[in-house]
Amino acid sequence: MSKPILYIHVGPSKTATTFLQRDVLGRIESAECLPVPEIEVEGRRLRFGDLFSLSPEFWRGLEADPLADKVRHSGRDVVISDERICGGLVAPQPWIPGSVPGRGLPPSPRLHTHSRADPYFVSNHFRELRRAARAWGYERVRVLLTPRRQDTKLASSYAQLSNRVRGAGQQNFETWV
User: Fold this and answer.
1) CA separation for the pair 14, 152 (Å, rounded)
2) Cβ(177)–Cβ(154) below 8 Å
3) What is the pTM of this model?
């Protein structure tokens, strides 16, 4: 029997990730699917995607598979889905003059401070994760990306992030873009 493959679905946000996590992954019988798993790190539970805001060296310190308690290790492939690996959306609130404080803020402090993923940093994470996954018994790591047209992604992102910002409109969208 061949070793399982670890698939990492990274999103990014606004590319039907929630739909995949809620309606698709649970129906896949040929793989262990873990939408937005949490991993214990030094006594704290962190979302898998938040691990990518740590140093890539983090993966070197994981001798045991942190997913072992979540998968049955039946030899099936494992699919993890977490759009935070790609960072989050940048809230338009700081660019909207006269916006009401406390409205339009990102839902997580992480999204405000780590809103744009550095491709070099993310690639280092995947290199270290691949090394660790081999030691945990996975044959390889595959990355799944979900594309979306940039114009519709921008419009959808702005609509989501500005829906609670008083006075948000077309002019603010153009400033934000």
Assistant:
1) 9
2) yes
3) 0.75
**Three-state secondary structure string covering the chain:** CCCCEEEEECCCCCCCHHHHHHHHHHHCCCEEEEECCEEEECCEEEEHHHHHHCCHHHHHHCCCCCCCCCCCCCCCEEEEECHHHHCCCCCCHHHCCCCCCCCCCCCCHHHHHCCCCCHHHHHHHHHHHHHHHHHHCCCEEEEECCCCCHHHHHHHHHHHHHCCCCCCCHHHHHHHC
Tally the residues of the chain: 177
* pLDDT greater than 80 at residue 131: yes
Token digits of residue 116: 């744009």
How do residues 26-36 score in pLDDT, each as one tens digit? Answer: 888 889 999 99
Domain ranges of the chain: 5-176
Owner of token pair 């979306």: 148
Per residue in 45-90, pLDDT tens? 999 988 988 889 999 988 899 988 888 667 889 999 998 888 766 5
